[in-house]
């Protein structure tokens, strides 16, 4: 068996991640390759640092030259891979378990997708990065393997998961999705339609890249626009869409559509401030989505 570890990267130094994964793969005594694809990073310093990956055994750093998008770059990596099983890892991941790869190898099964999960750093970030930190830490109890397995397809995340190469080839990432967000949930819905088994295990990586508050809010808005564009395909796979349908029955979506432009400056000030509220962020997401559904 050959394991292909596939890492898309954009403006992030992932040398330490590749070194950690390479060492674990060696300890597992398996055939493996680590393919890193740079999707047109424009930070020359980081690109130069990541070129060190080519000196790491069984590791290759490919530079695309221009940005193609999150789905395209993953499909490209699948096409370049040689392994029977593909382990997808985001470049801002951090290994927190000495047996991370070994844990995955125990679940190698034909036609089964395995999701390891996500954790976040324990330290409390500076106020400028506190919004995402608080949101992610508040959500962590909802994303244990036990909870994720209750709705395995809706909880698929491409941050850290493994699947057979034949499954990846027959179910490519949707390259029509150009905005941030929901390409993984859409992939999960495709697996459900095809009857491909998805299993969640407790084998997390740490998401080490916590964006500044304003950037995270911008990405949140972009993900809502992506959700709106995919709403017909995502109707049974999104908690926010379920919430929207509930308030729509009572015409509250109209009220939020009217109130949001008035409340937006205050909400933005609060969410990018020193003490952002997760509840306020959830309200912002729902109200913003309502404005897209005119």
From the structure above, extract its key features:
294 residues; alpha/beta; seven-stranded mixed beta sheet; three-stranded mixed beta sheet; 10 strands; 46% helix; 16% strand
What would your notes on this structure say?
Helices cover about 45% and strands about 15% of the residues. With about 290 residues, the chain is α/β, with parallel strands linked by helices. The strands form two sheets. Strands 3-2-1-4-8-6-9 form a seven-stranded mixed β-sheet, with helices on both faces. The chain has a three-stranded mixed β-sheet with strand order 5-10-7, with no helix packed on it. Strand 2 (about 30-40), helix 2 (about 45-50) and strand 3 (about 60-65) form a beta-alpha-beta unit. The protein starts with a strand and ends with a helix.
What is the structure about, briefly put?
The chain has helices at 15-27, 44-50, 70-80, 100-105, 130-139, 145-148, 165-170, 183-194, 213-229, 231-234, 239-249, 252-271, 278-292; strands at residues 2-9, 31-38, 59-63, 85-89, 93-94, 112-115, 118-119, 160-164, 197-200, 205-207. The protein has 294 residues and is α/β, with parallel strands linked by helices.
């Amino acid at each position: 068996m050959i394991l292909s570890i596939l890492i898309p990267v954009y403006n992030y130094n992932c040398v330490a991640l590749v070194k950690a994964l390479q060492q674990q793969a060696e300890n597992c005594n398996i055939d493996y390759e680590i393919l890193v694809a740079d999707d047109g990073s424009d930070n020359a310093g980081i690109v130069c640092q990541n070129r060190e990956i080519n000196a790491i055994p069984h590791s290759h750093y490919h530079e695309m030259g221009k940005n193609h998008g999150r789905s395209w770059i993953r499909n490209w990596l699948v096409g370049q891979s040689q392994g029977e099983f593909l382990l997808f890892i985001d470049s801002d991941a951090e290994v927190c378990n000495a047996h991370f790869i070994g844990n995955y190898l125990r679940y190698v099964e034909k036609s089964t997708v395995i999701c390891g999960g996500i954790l976040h750093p324990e330290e409390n970030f500076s106020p400028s990065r506190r919004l995402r930190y608080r949101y992610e830490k508040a959500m962590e109890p909802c994303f244990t393997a036990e909870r994720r397995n209750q709705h395995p397809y809706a909880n698929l995340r491409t941050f850290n998961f493994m699947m057979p190469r034949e499954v990846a080839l027959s179910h490519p990432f949707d390259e029509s999705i150009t905005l941030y967000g929901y390409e993984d949930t859409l992939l999960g819905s495709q697996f459900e339609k095809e009857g491909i088994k998805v299993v969640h295990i407790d084998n997390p990586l740490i998401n080490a890249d916590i964006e500044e508050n304003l950037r995270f809010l911008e990405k949140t808005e972009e993900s809502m626009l992506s959700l709106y564009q995919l709403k017909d395909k995502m109707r049974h796979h999104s908690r926010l869409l379920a919430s929207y349908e509930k308030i729509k029955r009572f015409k509250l979506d109209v009220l939020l559509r009217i109130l949001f432009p008035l409340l937006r400056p205050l909400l933005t000030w609060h969410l990018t401030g020193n003490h952002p509220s997760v509840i306020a962020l959830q309200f912002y997401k729902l109200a913003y989505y309502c404005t897209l559904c005119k």
